[in-house]
Amino acid sequence: MKQEDRRQQTIRRLMDTTKELISEKGCHSITMQDIMSRSGMSKGSIFHYVKSKNEIFIWVLQERLEETNGSFMKEVEQGRRNFEDPMQEIEKSILAYENPHDITNKVLLYLLGKEEDPLVAEALTDYYDRSAYLSKMWIEAGQKHGVIAETVDAEKTGDMFTLMTFGLRIRSGIPQAKAVFQAEDLTAFIRERLASSARRKGEES
């Protein structure tokens, strides 16, 4: 097996093991010993790739974002020239984030409490920046295909959507928080904000 294939296989094993443990125990209770025992990997094997469990948590956090982007880009690359199909991929992700048992939400809330760790602080910054960048890129893809008006400020609108999504995710971790504005409302707001711009563009042309 090639070294890179072995690396990817090990990372996948560590992530799958950690996600199982998060689902069962939550983030705070997991130890590296738990990960070693569940994965069947030695301490030396694990520490060859990571220095702490927080690094694995960071991988888990990033994974969903990249999966959503991959699904979105697949729709675009298949020649979708409409607003609906790519938007559905984004909506799926947002609706999942409202679930208080969502693993990535648990990881995000946990890491937000570990921001004094330089590694975690950098990862959180990168994660937010990446989220905002992808939101901007998705809007620009819609503009390129003529389904979102060019008058929409892609960077500012993408950051606004990212900020709102993060708020939704953080609220999911607050016990018994009154959720008046729900995930469906957020996706409807995003849809209307972007789709209405395309309608205005059509009316003006």
Automatic annotation (TrEMBL):
Domain HTH tetR-type, chain residue ranges per copy: 8-68
Organism per entry: Paenibacillus aurantiacus
Name of the featured protein: TetR/AcrR family transcriptional regulator
Origin organism lineage: Bacteria, Bacillati, Bacillota, Bacilli, Bacillales
DNA-binding region boundaries: 31-50
InterPro entries: Homeodomain-like_sf (IPR009057), HTH_TetR (IPR001647), Tet_transcr_reg_TetR-rel_C_sf (IPR036271)
Keyword list, A-Z: DNA-binding, Transcription, Transcription regulation
